[in-house]
Amino acid sequence: MDQNKLSVYAQSKQETCIANDKIPKSLYEKYGVNCGLRDKNGKGVLTGLTRISKIVSFKDQDGKKVPCDGELWYRGYNIYTLIRSISKEAYGFEKIAYLLLFGEYPD
């Protein structure tokens, strides 16, 4: 792919990336997430919110937080589902890379 075609393609996907990766500022306050190197008291580390992955290591059981078998979700897909899908498809790596870059599974 020549540089001009690549540039045109990247520009055509810009809005998709922005739409799929934007996190409302209100969620930082709601969940108490710092979005800088310092918290309100001058202490802290860099933290953030992501729509790329989710890790589940605890479940609520009778109102208590209990450890569970871990789950990894990637862009809303269970990682095991993604793994099973690429074993049957010729372009599994490319589809997962597309999912990472653009926030949606390709058609």
From TrEMBL:
Tree of life domain: Bacteria
Coiled coil: none
InterPro entries found in the cross-reference section: Citrate_synth-like_lrg_a-sub (IPR016142), Citrate_synthase (IPR002020), Citrate_synthase_sf (IPR036969)
A GO term, aspect molecular function: acyltransferase activity, acyl groups converted into alkyl on transfer
Protein name: Citrate synthase
